[in-house]
Amino acid sequence: MRFVDPLSMEWDAGLVDPQLAPGVAIKPLREDPETGEVSFLYCSPPHRVPPGMAKPQWTHPMVEELYCLEGEYVWGDCGRMGPGGYAWWREDVYHGPAGTDTGYHLFVRTIGGPLVNHFDDEKKPFTWEPEYRPQLPADLMQYAAAYDRPPNY
Ligand SMILES: [Fe+2]
Fold first, then answer.
1. pLDDT digits 0-9 by tens, 88-139
2. What are the structural domain ranges in the chain?
3. Where's the ChrR-like cupin domain (predicted)?
4. 2, 73, 92, 112 — which has fewest CB within 10 A?
């Protein structure tokens, strides 16, 4: 297995789907030569707000695993995610609309194929305080807990 050192890599905005909001960038970690599955770091600056507070949801033909390393990511489908937050979206499960007030740093992995994005046609309203509905495999659901946002500013 090839070793990569994220601290020595540049963030690459060119690897992000152009339909996702500008400002985000990726550091690729691994691509499986057999399956096309990928893992990567994904970051956003703060104040990335859906224009007009509405955005289409999107989904993928493969499973997406997402782990929030730092910052906060607000998901219309599953709630506000903070450091340690985790999601496992099955194939063809729509997620979002999404935005961030704090910015975030994520680890993302695909299972079952390369990353392919399918966007819905319809915009859904975005809120900063969506309901907590964890997206997890059944055996992990017992560990789920809503993010308790620490006082900040
Ligand atoms: Fe996704």
1. 999 999 999 999 999 999 999 999 999 999 999 999 999 999 999 999 999 9
2. 27-131
3. 19-110
4. 2
58 CA to middle of ligand 1, Å? 7
Q: What share of the chain is helix, strand, coil (3-state, %, to 5)?
A: 10, 40, 50
Alpha carbon of 105 to ligand 1 centroid (Å): 14
| Span from the CA of 72 to the centroid of ligand 1 (angstroms) | 16
Q: State how far Cα 136 lies from the chain centre.
A: 14
Cα 59 to ligand 1 centroid, rounded to whole Å? 6
Separation of alpha carbons 67 and 79, rounded Å: 14
Q: Do 123 and 55 meet the contact criterion of CB atoms below 8 Å apart?
A: yes
Ligand 1 geometric centre to CA of 106 (Å)? 12
Fold of 27-131: Jelly Rolls (2.60.120)
Distance, CA of 6 to CA of 29 (rounded, Å): 8
Q: How far is the CA of 151 from the centre of ligand 1 (A)?
A: 28
